[in-house]
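A note on notation is needed here, since sequence and fold are reported together in a single record. The reader may check this reading against the record printed directly beneath this paragraph.
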Amino acid sequence: MKINLSCPVELWHFKLPSEAYPVVRLNLFNLSDKAVTSIQAALLSFDSEGNQFMRQVERVGGLEGAPRSAFEVMIAMEDGHLAHYMDFIIEKVWFEDGTVWRRGTGEMSEYKPNRMDPSRQLDLLRQMAGADAMGYPSDQGAVWVCLCGRPNAASATSCVRCERDKHEQFTKFNKAAIETLIYRRDSEMEEKALAARLEAGRMQEEREAREKRRKKRIRNSLLALFILALLAGGTYATITYGIPAYNYYQAEQLLGNRQYDLAKEKYLALGDYRQSLEMAREADYQKAASFLQNGNVTAIKSAEDLYLALEDYKDSAQRYQAAHYSRAELVLKNGDYGQAISMFTALGAFRDSAARAQRAQYDWARLLMEEMDYPAAREKLLALGDYEDAASLAEDCLYLPAVAHLGNKEYAQAEALLLQLPAHQAAQLKLQEVYYGWGDMLFLAQQFEDAAKKFLSAGDYLDAFRRASECLYEPALVLFEEKQYEKAKGYFDQILAYRDSQMMSQQASFHLGKQAAEAGLWQTAKERLAEAPDVQDAVPLLKEVNYKLAETALAASQYAEAASLFDEAGDFDDAKDKAQQAWFDGGIAMMNARDYAAAAKLFERIPDYKTAGEELVRARYNMAISLLEKAEYADAIAAFGALGDYEQTKDYLDKAAYQLAILSLENKEYEEAAERFLKLGDYMDASKRYQEAQHARALAALNAGDLNAAIDLLSGIRAYGNADELYVSAVYQQAAAEEAAGNLGQAAKLYALIPSHQDAQEKSEANFKSYYETAYQAAKEAQKARNYEAVVEALSGLDMTTTGENYADIKDIYEDAVYRYADELYADKKPYEALKYYRMILDYKDVSTRKITRVPYQLIGKWESTKGVILEFRDDGTCLFDGKEMYYYARQYLLQLGDRPDEINISYSIVYQRDNALTIQHAKTKAMYKCTRVE
């Protein structure tokens, strides 16, 4: 349900209108201390499906709603009898003193009613708390519901309706308190009833005992003579068998009559006669069962004690656990959670004891939350781990009291609780609200600095930043005027985005820097002045400070530091000259220390100063020699390479390159080694080393079965070692493999490389013939018939680089056929098909100079007109003309377009054409396109 907690009037009861009496009767209660004279309310009518079908707003005047009293209002409603149910919303309330309460937006709070059904618990609650009690008090987070049923704000300490104290309600009249009272009363009654039953049983046993003694005396008298007669012969048998049997019989009768203690006593007195000891345990076993039938806590505890003492008799152990479980249930029902949890836990895996213990702990925690004992509740919820929503409730045990503290303006307590919930989104939002309220309270107390800290901690909550700025800005200005620049800057730095705080912070830094400079604290001055980049007066002072620091560094032979500081001093005094001198002196110092790399970096900064250029080259030269000596050959080569022909650079460079090549060879990096030795030319034995590296690479290729790679490598070093032998063998093997694979042209070429080896010459000729003969003869026949297309088809794909003497003219035949076939296509108005063949022989005759420079080919490319029209002519005869895909054909002074290749009938005159310029005109419309080439 929903309620507006701020409304001073609440609805107690109402009666729906009927068709015969179309009036809503409302029973209202004035919660305020002022008399109500008028109200304005909205009545919302809903049908049986929950749809609103009518809204009626009425103002009722002339009311006499006395303070904190009930009063009645009646409102006539047209068609009100059709409503299945209604909602009543009070929008305005007028009081006798002229004040008006108005309902705001978004002020409704949800709550669950605490009304209890008629029960013994409700009767006792009303007996203890008052006749108006509707149910137990309930804490529902944002609201709490009073005994009387009225919802209240979480921060309210008493009920707005009945004025009962919140804390007293939750501690004295909660569910556990009432259940405990009922339990105590029931236990007292059970104890009294049990005592009465035991007393009645005792008196009955005494009566039965007196009657038995009387009958015994009669029997003894009658048997006296008989006993005397048989005394001599039957004394032994009577003593030995008759008396114990009779006593055993009596014990059985007592056990059957549920006189368990007397029966047990007689059985024990019989000692080991028959099953007396066993029956004595049976008496306890049955007595325990009778206690269980009683069903109260005391009786069940007695049964447990008996079963525990019986140990392994029958199923006593199992019955003990069942009795303990039942007693735990009763204890839990009576609200003694702690004892119940201990009892369920002690049962271990018996039935669902572990689950019951968890549930009891969970319910106990929920009860403690209702009683607002949040620390104890949280401790129990945390112990439950991930049980149901225990983790969430544990967070609520921090959040809910924090909200209450916030409502009471107890900000420190609220903060301490909310800070323990860093991942709780609502808590973090509340924390911002805490800081804002705290800051406001401190502001009112004129504790501006502390207030600002709180407002800043509130982040983007409402106008927190503006409030923080107000707290700090004015005090900061006062501090600045009082020349307390450090503290003023601290304030300004916290609100840099507020007004001119950023500039004021820099001004404070400037004054601090100036003070430090006046005191000769140059480093402090530099740091402070660096914080004031926009203060004009800080610039010259900072230069002077850098100059002073530079002089100090120079005196300590810290040349690089001094030079940097002189550079920062800019145009102050002779800083520029001193900076260069410091760089130079630093470089000389590094040279003397043999730190050539550092020296070079320093000289690089002043290449035109005095002899710095020469010193720079010398430093780089010495650095390169140092790298060579340290066997850092790659870096040495790079360093020497940058020195040109300085002194012995060439010799050192060759030495470094040679050593790097040797290192590659030793590391079996043969490819890198070969490249490096080849570049060294005739340096020392570089040529021989090159052949060695190539030979090693060839062997690796042969071992990997890569004959082609081996042949390439060996072909350049055939005079080295057994390289020629390996080369011939590899060529022959690869030729045989190509021959077997049907690559006869390639096989022929390979065999031709080694004509003097075995039958290589014959195999070369045979493979050339097989490879070329068929195609060659077909091409010759087609050539005679001037069927140039057939010549091209016959020879296409053949390797024409090494044909042998018999087929030496095959390339000429092929190129001539391609040339003539392209001319035929062009003459047949197929210029773009012809282009493909012209491109196959660009270096033949006049193909490049004349054939492919004709008009159809000059158009190919992308053009753009002066009006932005794009024309794109492709080499396949298609084009894009002003966004439309078409086909085209061109010859001297004429361009034709069409939608299909066989319907090219739209004509344009080629008015002007150059490499990058084109002008065409539509033959009919005379539309002109002046274009430039864009691709």
User: Anything to note?
Assistant: The chain has 36 helices and 20 strands. Residues 450 and 816 are 100 Å apart (CA to CA).
